[in-house]
Amino acid sequence: MEVQDLAQAYRLFECIQCGRCTGGCPMSLKTRFNIRRLIYEALVDEDMDLQSKEVLWDCSTCGTCTLRCPKGLDPTDIVIGMRSILVDGGRIPPTIRDALKSLAIRGNPLTMAREERSDWAEGLGVREISEGAKVLYFVGCSPSYDPRVQKVAKALVQTFKKADVEFGILGNEEVCCGSEARRMGETGLFEMLRELNLETLEPYPVELMVTTSPHCYDAFQNEYQGLDFKVQHYTQFVAGLIDEGKLPLSKEVKRVVTYQDPCFLGKQNKIFEEPRKILESIPGLELRELDRSRERSLCCEGGGGRMWAEGTNPEERLAHTRVQEAMDLGAEVLATACPFCLLTLEDAAKTVAGEGGIQVMDIMELVVEAL
Amino acid sequence: MQASLDIANAGFLVYLVEREPSIGGHMAQLDETFPTLDCSSCILTPKMVDVARHPNIQLFSYAEVVGVDGGVGHFEVGVRQKPRYVDVDRCTGCSLCVEACRLKGRISSEFDVGVSKRGAVYMPFPQAVPLKATIDPERCLFITRGVCGKVPACKEACEAEAIDFEQKEKMTELEVGAIIVAIGFDLFDAHLKPEFGYGLYPNVITGLQFERLSSASGPTRGKISLNGQEPKKVVFIQCVGSRDKSVGVEYCSRVCCMYTAKQAHIVKEKIPDAEVTVLYIDVRAFGKGFEEFYDRVRSEGVIYRRGAPSEIYKRGERLIVRAEDTLLGEPLQLEADLVVLAIGIVPRGDAQDLATLLRLSASPDGFFQQAHPKLRPVETEREGVYLAGCCQGPKDIPDAVAQAKAAASSAIIALRNCIEVS
Amino acid sequence: MGPRIGVYVCHCGVNIAATVDVEEVTRFAQGLPSVAMARDYTYMCSDPGQALIKEDIKEFGLTKVVVASCSPMMHEPTFRGTIQEAGLNPYCLEMANIREQCSWVHEEEEEATRKAIQLVAAAVDKAFLLEPLEERRVAVTSAALVIGGGIAGMQAALDIANAGFQVYLVEKEPRLGGHLAQLDKTFPTLEPVAPLLAEEIREVEGHPNIDLLTSAEVIGLEGYIGNFKVNVTDQATIRDLKVGTIVVATGYDIFDARLKPEYGYGIYEKVITGLQFERLVSLSGSRKFWVNEKEPQDVLFIQCVGSRDKSVGHEYCSRICCMYTAKQALLVKEMLPQARVTVLYMDVRAYGKGFEEFYDQVRGEGVLYRRGNPSEIYKNGKRLIVRVEDTLLGEPVQLEADLVVLATGITPRRDSPKIANLLKLPRSPDGFFMEAHPKLRPVDTVTEGIYLAGCCQGPKDIPDTVAQAKAAAASAMIPLCQGQVKVEAVTSIIDEELCSGCGICAEMCVYDALSLHERKGVMTINEVLCKGCGACAAACPSKAIKLSHFTPAQILAQVDALV
To answer: What ipTM, to 2 d.p.?
Structure first.
């Protein structure tokens, strides 16, 4: 695709240039990334030099713009379309190129070995899905390989067992859901990963897939077609367990907690209540709401390839602002339900709060404290 | 009201059925009207009084149409008169009951759109026609629970012995030759745009709530203030719930650009040192005197910035409005003490019921469909049934009045021809 | 027994009561001689307020009533009706405006109360001298005149005719249809105009109650509501028509694009107006749309030409151009899918039913909307260059075009001063005919019996024109239905003994109500034409004219009370 094709392909003519997209974009708070203007230039400027627009890599694909557009356009998708033109032209930040290469070769963007993917589960008595369970736990790349996020996977396993959930994992057969690949502009790679996963899943009589990451959830729920099983994010599943009385939370967790709505869980998929339900079910836990919550949650800058690209303004980090907001609220714990939020916010907390300051935890880590 | 007056003046009997306890509709809630800045109730009440005293108009207030049979020239209409639990022949409108009500100040006032509270027995507004008390059957302690103190407070206070808890609904059958539907509109529910924090932040209000604040006979006596504080930075946001596929409302509500300009002017007039900003996409100042009014409002120092806001959040005590100024090409974070959402006009929630009764169809935008989009703006597909006002589509007062007169013209023609035939 | 005056001081909620001590004013009034009783109340105009007055009239035998409240413009008719219902002559009412002229313009309570007291004193003293006046009624000629045979005129005529009344429809041109006949398709439905119009015209021409006079003009008007006498000429003959009411539907003209020389209209062949575009499209039978001997590649539409423009003296918005341009842009895209079509705008005013959805549709077809009002057009070889700042990019651009369409605005007709003079119609600042009240009386004029319909009152599209024409028809047919009209009771009276017949009063009178009685040698007043303005009374050098309800004695009584 060329720049000149963008207008037709993405219906750019329908844009009335109202500015709600850029006005709500988290990146416009700290960079010159202006999606409205990019759309307009793509419309009116035949000689638009897309290749020089480094700001395109600032976008975290949080989806606020698409959520706000009054004319039904999808600016997030337009950014991805523009990135794919850059990718075709070879103009990508080297760190992104590396991540994409790793995805293509190893099935994960973290340059880790395929054979080590399910090492985290060692000794936990986790079954493979080939053994026939109806519930598939789709672990995801970060939870599989990143030591910090492995704790979340382990917490989930612990919880499933406590609730007597019969589940299985794909083990080393699992490959990246491809969500980030698509968002980095590599549609072909995404399609390849998708096909691989579908092939892998084919023989198993899975009825329900539960994911750690909202990104995986979003991909399977919205971008994979032809699934013959339901997909849930773990917050939906665990909230369901609590509702059905299968998960007794008896130990007190006396902490003041606030919750970061991850963009891919909240804004994009409207899952706001279940995470809160889980937190409120934990005895002793006091839940305080951040002002910018739910549809207005402040993006952590983790998605859209941002884990592999610093962007045009690395000095300012929205995660720092977010941690400060949580601290101003008097929270001891900033809880979240997404690996990217967990990593970026924890990193920020180290800088802003220092040792002994506010803790960043995944909801599941709080749940296991209450088991 | 306009349609009734015209038909009545042409010599025909008119039954005017109004669902609320008083006639007047939304115009009674407005402070001043654009672009002339007339006091709305001042120009409205003479019309209301004309309706009340017209020998050819029979007013059924607090009543609704529950059945329609027949055709042009011979409709049979069933009207249900709802019980006010107040004997209107005895009630003098003195309001002693309203003062006495034990629930006074506890029920959100519909007329003041929640800016003030009323009791279970209430007077909709001071210039109501008819000026009679009404008891809210869903909130009144005596009606819902059988007990209100030793004696219901209103009954005790009423010197005219007008309180009547035994009152029943009354059904009437009317025979009419023509029907005009003028049931008006509702306002877009701003809760449906959660990104603006309406309902969460007390200083984010709707355009109609602003009217009640700025109205001299309103709950704050015309002072623009929330919690005793006068705002110094006021931001108006256009197109809330209009031109917006994300909430399923594609159409333009037609009046908001102008009502916002008027409200911005009012703020500048009442709080001269306030910073007033209007955030817009297109300024639709299309009618007579509109562009000139828009020019005037800007010359008074109201700043128009092009960019529809995306969200509002709080920083300390201040509200921050996030938008992009599309003419500067720069994202904005505007501080505000008061944010006024220019909410759009939507079809009434109960329009569908009436549509079913009358066998009327709706346009894709949800408003009643006229017989032909260009040449038949007031006729429907059903002969003898005509449309007037915002139930056919958003419009301002002069256009509503003109359309009401147009509907009256069609009705008069039908009635005169029916009489000739018979 | 002298007059027994009742005085009512209205609080008007807090409008008056917040600034004026209404109780003190009431006490003052009670103390005046000839005031039988005085009271104050929250809203005199409300049902209970009026009931108070009626009861008091009966109980206290009041013969005159003073209401101290808002401007008489608000509720004089209301209170006149009230006292009439209680058996008094409606002209035994005097109002003191203690709101617009007192509480609304003064802040200091003491000052405002003092002034209110003075105003009430003046009103009471005048009320003392008020005389009952007779409200006369005259019969109405059962016919209407509609001036103008465009869509507004035709619709108004049809409605009045369908109600069973005789209508004279006078049209200047040889054919009916006005500007609508020049259009190809209408927004937003894109249906062809011709069949719709033909249907209307057929109905008008065939209607038994419509007397159609084409190629005819109104050249003279006399009379008053219910009894107008109109002279109509068709070059050959002059007819005298007698009608009861008149609807003015004279339509509009188009802005002359030559007044914006920077666009090169009239110089460059390929710069055309919106109306010319309509003709081009409807005449292009096979839809072949050629410019420069081939299909245009780039077509540019420019909004707001001659509207929203103080530099050409047209501040107002022409209301229809955003939509007609969108329609035209869509038509170009349909005829020439490969062409690049751009609309240069300032604000897109797609306000009406189906308009925004149509605007969405037009953009969905690939019409490009760029924000910016062009500054000039010049030529480069065979192509035109439009210079404009794209305000969303914040950069000046030079756009090439094969065809430029100027969305010229609607203006009042060039002959509207003539019509205005003939019919004594005032005009609004924008030049269009002025309605009686911009909010609540959009079709009435200050002259009773004359109504406005369509674009002569202000720019509007077809549905709004049709609605307004029907509205004017409703207003016009009501006096015809009633068969009689009330005549203004407040008129001038001539003292024949003092009158020398000099005629100065007649020169002053804008209603032509005064004329010389040949035999008596004195002036006479046509009480039906007289509107009671008082100009003649002021002008008369012999003080021979008195305006009833505003006699010198009454006015002096007010002045005495005030000072």
So the answer is: 0.93
d(CA B413, CA C428): 32
Region label for B58, one of left (φ > 0), alpha (ψ between -120 and 50) or beta (otherwise): beta
From B271's Cα to the closest Cα of chain A, the distance in A is: 28
Place of tokens 């009320």: C127
The phi, psi pair for C170, rounded to 5°, reads -105, 125
Sequence spans of domains, chain A: 3-88, 106-241, 248-370
Tokens of C216: 């005819």
Q: How far apart are CA C315 and CA B292, in angstroms?
A: 7
Query: Would you tell me how many other CB atoms lie within 10 Å of the CB of residue C442?
Result: 28
C179 lies within 8 A of chain A by CB: no
Is the same domain home to C322 and C390? yes
Chain C: residue whose CA lies nearest to A72: C360
Architecture of domain A3-88: Orthogonal Bundle (1.10)
A106-241 topology per CATH = Rossmann fold (3.40.50)
Same fold across A106-241 and A248-370? yes
B330, containing H or E segment: strand B330-336
The residue out of C410, C445, C475 marking a domain boundary is: C410
A36 vs B239, B322, B326: nearest CB: B326
- Compute the Cα dihedral for C78, C80, C81, C87 and give only its sign: positive
Q: Total domain count for chain C?
A: 4
Q: Which amino acid is at B57?
A: I
Query: CA torsion, points C307, C313, C315, C318, in degrees to nearest 10?
Result: -30
Residues C351 and C466 in one domain: no
- The structure tokens listed for C300 are 């540019």
CATH code for residues A248-370: 3.40.50.10700
C454-509 pLDDT, tens digit per residue, is 999 999 999 999 999 999 999 999 999 999 998 878 999 999 999 999 999 998 88
Q: How many residues does chain B have?
A: 422
| Cβ of residue C389 closer than 8 Å to a chain A Cβ | no
Tokens of residue A304, six digits: 């859209």
Angle at A291 between CA A288 and CA A294, to 5 degrees: 90
- Per-residue pLDDT tens over the stretch B128-163: 999 899 999 999 999 999 999 999 999 999 999 999
Nearest CA in chain A to B248: A70
Question: Which residues form the domain of C103?
Answer: 5-129
Choose the final residue of a domain: C65, C98, C129: C129
Same domain, C361 and C505: no
Structure tokens at C526: 């046509």
Give Cα C26 to chain centroid, integer Å. Answer: 40
Cβ <8 Å between C369 and A71: no
- Does B195 lie at the interface with A, CB-CB under 8 angstroms? yes
